[in-house]
Amino acid sequence: MNIETLNVKGICFGEILWDNLPSGRKLGGAPLNVAYHLNKLGIYTEMLTRVGIDSNGYDIMALCKELAVPTTLFQQDSDQPTSTVEVYIDEKKDVRYEIIYPVAWDFIALGEKELESVQKADFFVFGSLSTRNDISYQTLKALLKVAKYKVLDVNLRAPFYSKERIFELLGYADLVKMNEEELGFVAEWLELDSICSDQEKVGTIMEHFAIRELIVTYGADGAVYHSLAGQFSYHYPALKVEVMDTIGSGDSFLAAFLFLRCQTDKDIRAEEILEFAATLSGFVTQSSGACPNYDTIAINRFEWLNLLQKFNLK
């Protein structure tokens, strides 16, 4: 995969934080993870968020600049602290989060700068977690009214969600990403029969909310991309990797998907898009944290090693 700088710009809205892992703190937050990978892949993507005026906030801004994540839309809060999350990883490498409330990104403010930036962006990525407080939620709704291509990452973190709020967000979205469990929740809220297949659940959800594209991730079983325009569903298996942790694997999948999806001037098949998304997601899964360092050479080498392993040539 050749990574090139594209004449495309995006904005990710929502949480930015320190993940306190057993191995130490790591920069995190689903929208930040997406922004990090998009910038690595060559799409200039700003992060619209809010941090506290404290040491954690200063450290986040300094690290983002070091990682080439633009901080031009960062807001600073003198009353609320920078977000931190306690992360627990069990023996199966599954992750559990203890998310502190309230924090600075619960109070993202709306201004002309934010409205103008989102209006000019080619796509706008947002997640459900950032709507847990009404101030950020009202800001998000105002931005969604001017955004061109709206990408929703359903990110259900108890107790910070409700059926009504998730339904409202789904009504705005052009592209939605959710995992298997989240698909089950939405299907149950729509009172779909429990014997419905995932294909039937997805079809109903897309029709009900007028969603044109929907991705369902299945962890080690890969992901399925559903396209209303193309009238098809395409499954791509996950790469078999040694799992370091699963933090940010879905975020990297979404970033890689958007990287190729936004190249509308090229004839890129769904298979190619999902293959690259699975590759980057696999690379992140076998790395520590959501934002490992990499370049084109590292990703190509990882891809070739997995191909060799797949065909028993190694």
Q: Key features?
A:
alpha/beta; 314 residues; four-stranded mixed beta sheet; UDP-N-acetylmuramoyl-L-alanine:D-glutamate ligase
Question: Can you describe what's shown?
Answer:
The chain has helices at 30-41, 55-66, 112-120, 134-144, 163-172, 180-189, 198-209, 249-261, 270-285, 296-310; strands at 9-13, 17-21, 24-28, 44-52, 74-77, 83-89, 95-99, 123-127, 150-153, 175-179, 213-217, 223-227, 232-236. It has 314 residues and is an alpha/beta fold. It has one domain (9-305): UDP-N-acetylmuramoyl-L-alanine:D-glutamate ligase (3-Layer(aba) Sandwich). The strands form two sheets. The protein has a nine-stranded mixed sheet, with helices on both faces. It has a four-stranded mixed sheet with strand order 3-2-6-7. Helix 1 (30-41) crosses helix 8, helix 6 packs across helix 7 (198-209) and helix 8 (249-261) runs antiparallel to helix 9. It starts with 8 loop residues before the first strand and ends with a helix.
For the secondary structure, the number of strands is 13
Helix content: 25-40%
Mean pLDDT: 92
Q: Which secondary-structure class do the elements indicate?
A: alpha/beta
CATH fold call: UDP-N-acetylmuramoyl-L-alanine:D-glutamate ligase
Total helices: the number is: 10
What is the correct CATH architecture? 3-Layer(aba) Sandwich
Largest sheet, order of strands side by side?
5-4-1-8-9-10-11-12-13
Name of the CATH class: Alpha Beta
Gross geometry = globular
Using the CA coordinates, give the radius of gyration. Answer: 19 Å
Strand fraction:
15-25%
Describe the sheet with the most strands: 9 strands, mixed
The overall number of domains is 1
Q: Separation of termini?
A: 21 Å
pLDDT under 50 segments (min length 5)?
none
CATH superfamily caption: Ribokinase
